[in-house]
Automatic annotation (TrEMBL):
Keyword terms: Ligase
InterPro entries in the cross-refs: 2H_phosphoesterase_YjcG-like (IPR050580), Cyclic_Pdiesterase (IPR009097)
Species this protein is from: Rothia santali
Superkingdom of the source species: Bacteria
Name the UniProt record assigns to this protein: 2'-5' RNA ligase family protein
Pfam families from the UniProt entry: 2_5_RNA_ligase2
Alphabetized GO MF terms: ligase activity
Coiled coil: none
């Protein structure tokens, strides 16, 4: 059961189609290892985006003051939602784009996507979904760039491939100005 979905936000050169100005979020992410960060940084993405290292977003929810139970309570809710999903390999292969819907270039998750979908569904069962889009596991490598720059990044990363083990999730809270880690969740079957 998905609890709710936000409406798409107007995306612009520096705006996220998911994140809104003046709003606070909780984000659950699979961080990618340093060697993968360096690999995709060559294509245009900085190793850390507002305090969150390069990652695959598993889930994002908006935090509202009237219903927010606090960092630790949210962390425990997410931990319970992810229980029973164990660690495993993630293979990234090739670049793609969400254009014309969103000016984003990403690296595809070729292996491990079902594990990420299970984690997403678990979170969506207990928290409202802030993303206006259906969940599609991916590693964003460029957004907020002009069309020619997006094309360049996609071409440079067309044949990229990397494999790493998903063993834990990072949980962050923040907004468009920056993010802070509030915890980590080990993946255990």
């Amino acid at each position: 059961m998905q609890r709710g979905r936000s409406e798409p936000r107007e995306a612009g050169p520096d705006r996220s189609p998911t994140l809104g100005s003046g709003r606070c979020y909780l984000s659950v992410v699979l961080e990618v290892p340093e060697e993968v960060r360096r690999l995709v940084a060559a294509g245009g993405r900085e190793p850390a985006d507002g305090g969150v290292p390069a990652h695959i977003t598993v889930f994002i929810t908006e935090r509202t003051s009237e219903s927010d139970p606090g960092d630790q309570a949210l962390l425990e809710r997410v931990r319970a939602a992810c229980a029973g999903v164990g660690p495993g390999p993630v293979r990234l292969r090739g670049a793609a784009t969400f254009r014309p819907v969103s000016d984003v270039v990403y690296v595809r998750v070729a292996e491990g996507a079902e594990r990420l979908r299970r984690l997403h569904r678990g979170c969506a069962a207990v928290l409202p979904d802030a993303s206006p889009f259906d969940y599609h596991p991916h590693l964003t490598v460029a957004q907020g760039l002009e069309g020619a720059e997006l094309d360049r990044v996609a071409a440079e990363l067309a044949d990229v491939e990397a494999v790493f083990d998903a063993v834990s999730l990072g949980v962050f809270t923040g907004d468009l100005s920056g993010w802070r880690r509030i915890g980590e969740i080990a993946l255990r079957a």
